[in-house]
Design brief:
With about 200 residues, the protein is mainly α. About 75% of the residues lie in helices and about 0% in strands.
Length: about 200
C-alpha cells in the first residue's frame, strides 16, 4: 500500500525519506556528551560559555543532517525523479523546525540525564527518561507534520505547509537562542552529575 501511494504521489518520497532519516539521527541530539568521557572536564575549564559548547555540538549534528538530506535527495532523484520544488521547500522548513526543537529539548536532556557511550558494549546507555521524552518529541513533531501536511494537500495549497513551519522555525530559533543562556547557567549546577556519569 505504501509503495502504491508513492507511485501516485512520487514527490512525497522525499519528505518521507527525510522523516525516516530524522527518526534515526535526531535522537543523537538528546545525549550530546555521550562521546566526551573525561573531555567534559575541559569544557568547564575552557574560557567560553557552556552555551557556546552546546551550540558547537548542535552545529556538528546540523551538518550531519545537511549531508544526509543531500543524500536522500540524490537517492530519491535517482529512483523517482527530482521532487517538486515546493515539496523540497516544505520539507526543509519542517526539518529546520524539527531540528531546532530537538536541540532545545536535547540540550536540556544532555545536561539533566547525561549518559556515557559504552564502546566496550557497542551500545549507548541512554537514560530511560531521555528515551521516553525523545519518543514523545518525535511523535509530536511528526504528528504536527502529518496534520499540517494533510490540510495542505487536501486544500491543494502546499505552500501552507512551508509557511507554517517556516514561522514555527523562526519561533523555535528565538527560543533556542534564549535557552543557550539558560543552559550556560544550568550547566554549572550540573557539573558534578556530568562528571560522575561521563568520567568513569
Amino acid at each position: 500500500p505504501g509503495n502504491a501511494f508513492l507511485k501516485r504521489m512520487p514527490d512525497l518520497a522525499f519528505p518521507f525519506g527525510i522523516a525516516y532519516m530524522f527518526l534515526i539521527i535526531g535522537q543523537f541530539a538528546h545525549n550530546v556528551f555521550a562521546f566526551d568521557g573525561r573531555g567534559v572536564q575541559m569544557f568547564y575549564l575552557s574560557p567560553v560559555r557552556f552555551g557556546d559548547i552546546l551550540l558547537g555540538k548542535n552545529l556538528m549534528l546540523a551538518m550531519a543532517l545537511v549531508l544526509e538530506t543531500a543524500g536522500v535527495w540524490i537517492l530519491v532523484s535517482a529512483l523517482k525523479g527530482p521532487p517538486g520544488a515546493i515539496y523540497v521547500l516544505a520539507t526543509l522548513c519542517w526539518l529546520l523546525f524539527a531540528m531546532l526543537v530537538h536541540f532545545i529539548v536535547g540540550n536540556w536532556l544532555s545536561l539533566r540525564f547525561p549518559r556515557r557511550f559504552d564502546f566496550g558494549q557497542f551500545r549507548r546507555r541512554a537514560s530511560g527518561v531521555t528515551v521516553l521524552i525523545g519518543l514523545g518529541l518525535q511523535i509530536v513533531v511528526l504528528g504536527l507534520a502529518a496534520l499540517v501536511g494533510f490540510i495542505s494537500i487536501w486544500s491543494g495549497r502546499l505552500w501552507i505547509f512551508a509557511v507554517v513551519f517556516l514561522a514555527l522555525s523562526g519561533l523555535a530559533f528565538w527560543l533556542y537562542l534564549l535557552t543557550l543562556d539558560y543552559y550556560s547557567r544550568f550547566a554549572i549546577t550540573r557539573r558534578e552529575t556530568l562528571t560522575q556519569q561521563l568520567v568513569r
